[in-house]
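Continuing the series of single-chain predictions for the mutant panel. This is the parent chain; the variants come on the following pages.
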Amino acid sequence: MRIALVVPGGVDRTGEYRVIPGVLALVKRLTADHDLQVFALRQEPEPASWHLAGARIHNIGAGWTRLRAVRAICREHRTAPFALVHSIWSGACGLIAVTAARLLGIPSMIHVAGGEPVSLPEIRFGGRLTWRGRLQELVALRGAAVVTAASAPLIRTLAQLGITARRLPLGVDLDVWPARSPARRRTGEPLRLIHVASLNRVKDQSTLLHALALLDAWSVPFCLDVVGEDTLHGEVQQLARRLGLEEHVRFHGFVRQRELVPLVMGADLMVLSSRHEAGPIAMLEAAALGVPTVGTAVGHIAEWAPAAALAVPVADADALARAIRSVASDEALRLRLGREASRRAVEESADYTVQCFEALYANLTAAARART
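Parent structure:
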């Protein structure tokens, strides 16, 4: 089957930098049985193309991106027809996929993987912040033949907007993150925490650091590794210093997957403080290694709690600190959470994601053939 996959980016030609692990895992698996043509909107500022993981990447570049992306899909369709157009993320990607598919008379799918259907004006985040964004989401999501979304909370959000979506997580790549049972903590050592996320408003590292300051005041021994690109120009590091956490927190910046795996494997607990998540994939990666998550009640954290994660209200530093402390003082609880989290991550791995997408592809193309 020939498939056009539309993504905002995350498919850098290096395969290591500026990549989205969930998208890369999907591309690797789809190319095994399909002719996959990936249309990346702004991976690079200038138009270009390259091969990655068996797929052809068509980078659209800046300037009239939506129009040129639709034209690129139509042009490639004339070379050899696509069976369908699939967008990972809604927003501009979804609108491009739906428009191109309509012009070509083929089905389209949208996978909602981020903040497209939400509006958080206090941090200027979400696809529905403006009337243009709300219109774009409405046109894209209502125009797709099938809409999928990463987690149950996101499904509920879409339902409130009148959109019926199917739950389908972007699973973890078990070739990179091998499944294992949780390891016991070393006696007498501090609780080893890890936080994997870009430093930005939606990830809300401020709440996380204030929670850690409470742990420090309660004399709970811990250390934290923070991994992720800094988009706030040192603001989070300055807050850590003001809270007296320099000896407890290490900032690593961006780390490649091959270097991240041992960091996560050495942790006792993943901690996340996001105001919104569709997933997150970092939680699933940690879960595969037997490392459970304590975090705010968003995405997979909300739907896995209390059996495979601990969830607390958004922006509640006190509740987050108490949840971390409860795991630090109860090794049986941490191991139980880790075992169940690993089971779920393996059950819904990247292989499962691709099998589900392929089943939807088969249904959509069969229905299209029946109509014609």
